[in-house]
Amino acid sequence: MRKLSVFNLLLLLILVASCNSAPKKAGSYMILPSPASMEITGISSVAATEIEAFVKQAKSDFIAGKSLAGTSEVSLSLETTSGLKPEAYTLEITEAHVEIKAATKVGLWYGLITLGQLVQDALDQDAALPLISIKDEPALNYRAVQLDVKHHLEKKDYYYELMDRLAELKINGIILEIEDKLAYEKQPKVGSSDAWSIEEWKKLSDHAMARNIRISPLVQGLGHASFILKHEEYKDLRDDPESDWAFNPLDDRTYEVQFDLYSDALEAFPHAQYLHVGGDEVHTTGRGSGKSPLELQLTWLNRVSEYAENKGLTPIFWDDMPLKNAGVYNSIFNRDLTDAQIDSIWTVNEPNLNTYVDMFPKNCVYMRWNYSMPETIGNNRAMKWFTDHGFQVMGATAGQTRWNLMPLEESNTVNIRDFALISIDNKADGLLLTLWDDDSPHFELYQRGIAIFAEYTWSGQKRTSDELHAAYRQRTFGAELASEDFAFINDLEGPVAFWKNALLDDKDRNRLRKMENPMQDAVLALPEAGKPGAWAEANADKLAKATENQQVIESVLNTISASKEAALRNAYRLDVYEQVAKVTQFTNKSLLLLAEWDLAKTDEERDAAKKKLLNLENEWKEQLAELQAVYGKTRELNKPDDYILDQDHHVHLANQAIKFSDWQFYVEELFLQKITEGNSLQMTGDVEIK
């Protein structure tokens, strides 16, 4: 028996050795953002499982501020005389060894992030690590994301997890539009009751900085000041006594208040590189001073820029108002204008800028924001005016602007790409990705746009849109989901765009709160009892779209379901997309049920359709409860009960109610009320439909 046991043991060892020596399969590796150069030549014998533990420990050491040490399998080399840029690195995986070289610890950090993605891909696919050579550096030095928290906050843990995610995409800056979500100590009335303390924001700032992400505050200034000027204590500082939008730039107390807010914000974000002062979308009157709007704005800008300079910071200023005041702004948003036409416009109007050129502060970054057409001749001409006069200029694109439910236009891929490429060509310092919370989709749905921004600002254009979206799916959910079979986000965009105003009669969802009787004057008219078929005929285009969308949504929901089965991580993001799809599905179903009632040929058909319509309210309550349960896992859905809404000059949905459901789904509420309270569903008797 003993001899047999030894024989079996030897046989087992031979089999194990045989398995271990068999060549592993090659994997599909999608690094995001793309390295500057990458060459794969074969399969390595380095075990991904062992490297995984090393990468985890090395990242932990970097975050803790410890020195980075290698092992027998992995070398980490700091070569300060290598000529590599601060964030650059090289990575080599040979037959039996891994080596990362950089001139700085940050370069090693980014090399570790890339190595971690290679390891993750290998483990996901049960594949070997590749024989690979990477030389990498960013195309833009400053790659920043704007976080806009003015209308709601996420739960605290979510922000910490977000910093980790952004670091994995090699994002190195955040502009945080803080508004009233900081509990200001010097002007305590400004902070809302759900605001974080200075110390709470400082902890997040430290967490981000440990991952090479500097958070800089954006404290809105001359305009966008409703979060301050809505309060009784500050009304005397208004430029227009009837409007909470803008400060009076000629009142010294304006600066006392703003500097107090800056001071607290800079304490909350001690690693700040910039102080973003806002300054966009505002005209001031000057209270009879005789000063022009441009002169008034530059008066304010010089005061706040001097403050930033004294604090050792660079101020950032949205550049739109000088361009508007000078008469050149519209040329930026017209693709049809030729070089000659742009020259003509600027020849006439540029003197309006040049008159005040000496008043433009030199220490300021002039941020050229353009969310729709950064490639225009006019946009480039505007950026050139600033650089020609010795001013710093930086661009701002958008991953989310005024879209409801979710970002559209393929997460704004084209705009992000174009502005990144322009910035690279012009050797700009960096680019900002704005993520406005005005209509407040779930933040998980911004993540693809952030990944797209990370790709183009680090790498330029190395992938097509489809390739980039596939890389996003692989990194986010796992290698299997890189397949086009799991692509659904772009398909969902059409139904979401239709959803926004589908239950309205040629009205806009954002503007109902300003109407006296929105249910009567905005919500879709119901079919009339005495006119069977007329409603369906009048709404034929809308019904055709609803029918088409239902087929799309059914396909999307099936793809999401399959994605959940196959995803190795980030299933929650799929849950959020699923809720968005179900909301649009409800709207399409509602329209088709109205048509079913309107086109019924018998009492029985009509009664059956009516019951379905009257049951929509219960269906919606269930759907809303499900959505809020999903959304509520990561976000604070409602504002505090004592929150004071401002005058809502820009009709931001998220500024129109305290409860999330009351602003996001106000249209659905009115529509269902109209269904249950209306008497137009009482038609009886057989009526021939023509």
What is the CA-based Rg, rounded? Answer: 29 Å
- The total count of helices amounts to 23
Low-pLDDT residue intervals, each spanning 5 or more residues: 9-23, 683-690
Structural class: alpha/beta
User: How much β-strand is present in the residues?
Assistant: 5-15%
CA-based shape: globular
Quote the CATH topology of the largest domain.
TIM Barrel
Number of strands: 13
CATH superfamily of the largest domain: Glycosidases
List the strand order in the largest sheet: 8-7-6-13-12-11-10-9
Task: Note the gap between the termini.
Answer: 92 Å
Major β-sheet, in short? 8 strands, parallel
What is the CATH class designation of the largest domain? Alpha Beta
Average pLDDT value? Answer: 94
Helical proportion, percent range: 40-55%
How many structural units, i.e. domains?
3
